[in-house]
Specification:
Strands 1, 2, 3, 4, 5, 6, 7, 8, 9 and 10 form a ten-stranded mixed sheet that branches. The protein is an alpha/beta fold.
């Protein structure tokens, strides 16, 4: 191959340009974080923020979205990658606790096919409706919602970010515990689901607090209750579902980093140390506060135990709801 002086100069300029970006080199073999959901959601936003913080210790990190099948496509993709620490997934409540109980056939095993790295955060969901819907139906709280649904069976529906999402499970748990009927309308991502409620195409949604907070502050959405067993600091005046009349209700969205099974201890320690440092940074603390999320970074063993506990918990919830996807 013949190199002209112009080609050599251009190559040199490119190399110098990459060297000016701290922690990033075109020669680096980047770490890929796979987000199994569409861009713009809380998982995607958090993954990109953590990646930015961790680049100083880990070098080039690329975030890729591989949505589909309730998160199963992206998670299964990572499960089949080499355990070299270069491809990890932003797993979540749906992909590692709900889907194994909801889907009749799952292409991956949430325990055997992954090496836990660290839990990242937990975020409450919040049951919201629009002011227009509230005025039309007279629904101002959860008890009003339950009473209206019982008087109007099969009339109400709820949107969610997809089958197996925390929003889906929250709706099913409400149905099971209160004896009402709600039609589930799944969307490809929480953003699309929330927009359907704002547009009046669907009636209500158990939305992620981080996603819904801006519209709540703007008066576009009315919060009826949060889904955790404790009130959210970001919405101190909004009751929990239990306080609102649905006992034992406790659901939150959580997300965590996982690598393919077989990751060696040295790489695992390196990733855990860097990501925990990033998650606990002041920058991320501010982001979590804005999102209404609680930082939960910890050890791989803690995450492994947490996933098993969540799988057992949602096995009961899914069974009680009667929901199943073939």
């Amino acid at each position: 191959m013949t190199f002209t002086r112009r080609k050599i100069c251009l190559m040199g300029a490119a190399a110098m340009g990459s060297a000016l970006i701290p922690g990033i080199s075109f020669a680096d073999d980047p770490i890929r974080i796979i987000v199994p959901y569409p861009p713009g959601g809380p998982l995607d936003v958090t993954a990109r923020a953590v990646a930015e913080e961790a680049r100083a210790d880990l070098g080039n990190i690329i975030v890729e979205n591989k949505p589909g099948a309730g998160g199963n496509i992206g998670v299964d993709y990572v499960a089949k990658q080499s355990p070299d620490g270069k491809t990890i997934v932003m797993g979540a409540l749906a992909t590692h606790a709900v889907n194994p109980n909801l889907f009749s056939k799952l292409p991956y095993d949430p325990i055997k096919d992954f090496t836990p790295i660290t839990l990242i955060a937990q975020t409450p969901n919040v049951l919201v409706i629009t002011p227009k819907f509230s005025k039309e139906t007279g629904i101002k709280n959860v008890k009003d919602l339950i009473a209206y649904a019982k008087k109007n069976p099969d009339k109400l529906n709820y949107a969610s970010g997809g089958n197996g999402s925390a929003g889906h499970m929250s709706g099913e748990l409400l149905k099971a515990d209160s004896g009402i009927k709600l039609v589930h309308i799944p969307f490809k991502g929480a953003a699309a689901a929330r927009m359907s409620v704002l547009a009046g195409d669907t009636d209500l949604i158990f939305d992620n607090l981080a996603s819904a907070s801006a519209d709540i502050k703007a008066g576009k959405l009315i919060p009826l209750a949060v889904t955790t067993n404790f009130r959210a600091p970001a919405l101190p005046d909004v009751p929990t579902m239990a306080e609102a009349g649905v006992p034992r209700f406790d659901i939150s969205t959580w997300y965590a980093f996982f690598a393919p099974a077989g990751l060696n201890q040295k790489e695992l320690d390196k990733l855990n140390k860097a990501f925990v440092k990033a998650i606990k940074s002041q920058s991320m603390a501010k982001r979590f506060e804005t999102m209404g999320a609680q930082e939960k970074a910890g050890t791989p063993a803690e995450l492994g135990s947490f996933v098993k506990e969540e799988m057992a918990k949602y096995k009961k919830i899914v069974a009680a709801s009667g929901a199943k996807i073939d």
